[in-house]
Amino acid sequence: MRWLAWVASSLVVVAMLSGAPARADDGYDLWLRQGDTPAPDIAAVRAGRVSAPVATPTQRAARDELIRGLVGASGPDAPSAVPDAGDGALLVGTPASSPDIAALGLDLDGLGDEGYLIRSVTVAGRPVTVIAAAHDVGTLYGTFAFLRLLRTGQPLDALNLREAPRLQRRVLNHWDDLDRHVERGYAGQSIWDWHRLPGWVDPRYTDYARANASIGINGTVLNNVNANAQILTPMYLDKVRVLADTFRPWGIRVYLSARFSAPMEIGGLPTADPLDAAVQAWWRGKADEIYARIPDFGGFLVKANSEGQPGPQDYGRSHADGANMLADALAPHDGIVMWRAFVYSDEEPVDRAKQAYNEFVPHDGQFRDNVLVQVKNGAIDFQPREPFHPLFGAMPGTPLMMEFQITKEYLGFATHLAFKGPLYEEVLRADTQVRGEGSTVARVLDGSLYDDESGGRRLTGIAGVANIGTDRNWSGSHFDQANWYAYGRLAWNPDLSSRDIAEEWTRMTFGNDAGLVTPVVDMMMVSREAVVDYTGALGLHHLMGRGHHYGPGPWVDGGPRADWTSVYFHRATAEGIGFDRTRGGSDAVSQYAPPVADLFDDVERTPEAFLLWFHHVSWDRPTASGRTVWDELVHRYDRGVATVRGMRATWEGLAERVDPARHAQVAAFLAIQEQEAQWWRDASIAYFQSISQRPLAAGVEPPPQPLSYYRSLAFPYAPGDTQ
Ligand code: GCW
Q1: Stretch 242-268: mean pLDDT, rounded?
Q2: Residue 664 is part of which domain span?
Q3: How far apart are CA 449 and CA 717, in angstroms?
């Protein structure tokens, strides 16, 4: 096509006139940046032929994406339409949208609503790359996949890919309040500008949808699980409608967090009892109201009877009663309920790690078909490392949905570089052993473990607590974009390797320079373990500052509830450290399938990474290295700091290979991380030494300040706190 040649050459001219090197990159374009991707030398471009239908918004989205990706033109310069290219060399569409695709008679069975295939074929003697799907959104995903191959420098001449997502609901959870505060958010304010909606539709909403679609995310819960009932009022629903309209072409549905007591707060009812007929009618009416505006509304996410939120137990009803009441209201519209299992009570003397299991397992099989129970990856709360949640595998009669945290509440907020891919991978691959070996958490989630009973008809899903805000780079730091990216890629295929994902992201985000890709990926892959080391290794957990969760607070005790303190979790005494969750202790181990329970019950066999999660041991107990628990813990603190120092050095060495703006910010953040890792190390050693009374091994630096200094530090305005 002539326009292709024209656009390409005019871009060259513009670049020559401006004489600018790589433009300063503020990270706004995420992994979709055009960057320095060379003009692709592929048949379609050489021949100048792209055939992609443009009859629907989703088709136009895919077509525009191809133009951006292939020609490098975006914004006002982009051509407004692709001329009909007949037997195009790049052929995109569905049998319904494209006669050329229909003529190929491709086998699209089994790709479902969202799958696609990409294939190199020959048509009338010419090489053609086909991106085909049964539905428009599949071609959109296929287009992004094709561009991913292009941007990561993969060969494009003999393609034969067939992909469908393993999980149906791949959702972001925004903990965004209506006043734009983001709970546990470290990237500025909420991107939802509620006050100016629906009149002002920020173009950023489209960019948001596009970024999510590019990694396969197909749903978003707009508001905090600590929910405000106002979101369900007509005024807000009119705003939600506009967001839903904006996201729809990108295959993304909206969901809302529903406050259980909304019938009282905005409905004027005297009760929110789920068995009350007026309450049930109110929710049915509310669902009708929502669907009248948003016909493809996804459904409700609910945090009930957890950390002070209202719920069915306020009326002596069960979680199943509450979830089912909402599920019945949504069912006529094909909506679903995502009911969170993050529940624990401070009035309950039982180990907090056991409470969700105790509450939910008795209700297995009692939830409606359109309910997913949403379970955090571990039994406490998104710690840098936790064993997989014992609920996975323990509720065969109930579809469970994973909840990961993308934002880094416990891994250094947005300033620490911590790639969470390995954390996600570790949990998804963990073997529950509930149906013999290979009963991985991923197979619990995708339902394949239960195919015999369900015939593959189970609802499936995964949620990630978003790290997105108004910061130009969306996530608060350039490297935190990788956590959003990795979450989406694993939601699509939970078997992907986190290293492969890190490499893919690095190539798209920073370029294909081999001298950059390997060191960056290596750095990302050690980063999470570094956080584990400098915040508390060997299975320690929940040691952070009170309330805001910023920095170390292993001394935190007292306050409103024991299970919000650090001492509750580490249980350090002069003789030893760790939480005894064995059969002789809190017996949390027995919530796992017998082979796993036996493993975790046995102090000799428990993986060292979980030693102090499951066992209270003597400070003098030898570990695998030969060092005592005390010396090993100190060693890990030092190792964590050293790893960060190494990451800094690696990054310094890449100064010539990264644009100055992004390089400088990452460098500054790594400097902050090193200081804070050192702070965690010093404060933790000072505290634990005051308890253990053990000397530091030869050569270990004592903390430079007394414990009282670390305890005195206060951060009343640390971001992201609950409000
Ligand atoms: O991770 C903890 C957070 C709370 C959060 C809660 C939850 C939304 O500290 O801020 O509240 O868990 O997941 O419900």
Answers
A1: 98
A2: 532-579+616-712
A3: 46
| CA of residue 296 to ligand 1 center, whole Å | 28
Whether residue 184 has its Cβ less than 6 Å from ligand 1? yes
Give yes or no: 425 in active site: no
Tell me what the mean pLDDT of segment 478-484 comes to: 99
Q: Of 344, 375, 381, 556, which is best to mutate to test ligand 1, by the most ligand atoms within 8 angstroms of its C-beta?
A: 381
- Number of structural domains the chain divides into: 3
The candidate with the shortest Cα–Cα distance to 661, out of 520, 473, 449, 475, is 473
623 and 485 belong to one structural domain:
no
Distance 342 CA to ligand 1 centre (A): 9
Measure 405 CA to ligand 1 centroid, in angstroms. 10
Amino acid identity, residue 691?
I
Burial string for 440-458 (b: 16+ CB within 10 Å, else e) reads bbbbbbbbbbbeeebeeeb
Contact 327, 336 (CB under 8 A): yes
- What spatial distance separates the first Cα and last Cα of the chain, rounded to whole Å? 57
Cα–Cα dist 106/108, whole Å = 6
Catalytic residue among 307, 314, 364, 522: 307
Amino acid, res. 692: S
Task: Verify whether residue 409 is a known catalytic residue.
Answer: yes
Nearest to 618 by CA among 608, 626, 629, 607: 629
Does one domain contain both 235 and 182?
yes
**Largest Cα–Cα distance of the chain, in whole Å?**
81
Catalytic-role residue among 29, 245, 381, 587: 381
Give the SS3 label for residue 440.
strand
Cα(237)–Cα(576) distance, integer angstroms: 55
Determine which one of 273, 409, 471, 601 is catalytic: 409
Q: Which atom of ligand 1 is nearest to the CA of 183?
A: 10
| pTM above threshold 0.85 | yes
* CATH number, position 123: 3.30.379.10
Over the stretch 605-659, which tens digit does the pLDDT of each residue have?
Answer: 999 999 999 999 999 999 999 999 999 999 999 999 999 999 999 999 999 999 9
